[in-house]
Amino acid sequence: MSYLVLARKYRPGNFSEMVGQDHVVTALSNALTRQRLHHAYLFTGTRGVGKTTVSRILAKSLNCLGPDGSGGITASPCGVCRACRDIDEGRFADYTELDAASNRGVDEIQTLLEQSAYKPVQGRFKVFMIDEVHMLSNHAFNAMLKTLEEPPAYLKFVLATTDPQKVPATVLSRCLQFSLRPIAPETVCAYLEMVLQKEQVRADAPALRLLARAARGSMRDALSLADQAIGFGNGVIEEMSVRQMLGSADTALVFDLIRSLSAGDGRRILEAVDSLRREGRSASATLEELALILQRMAIWQAVGPASVATSDEPDDAVIGELAARLPADETQLLYSICLHGRAELGLAPDEYAALAMILLRLLAFKPAPAAQERPTPGAPAPSIANASAPSSARPEAREVIQLRVRSPADRGREPAAPGLAAKEQPDLIAVPVLVTHEGGERTEVRRPSAGGSSASPASPEEAIEGDFWHATVQDLIERELVSALTRELALGAQLVARDQGHWMLRVERESLNQPVSRERLRTALRELGHEVALSVEVGSVRDSPGRRNAQVASERLQAAQAEILGDPFVQEMMRDFGAKIVPGSIQSVEGNSA
Question: What is the 3-state composition of the chain as percent helix, strand, coil, each rounded to the nearest 5?
Answer without folding.
Answer: 50, 15, 35
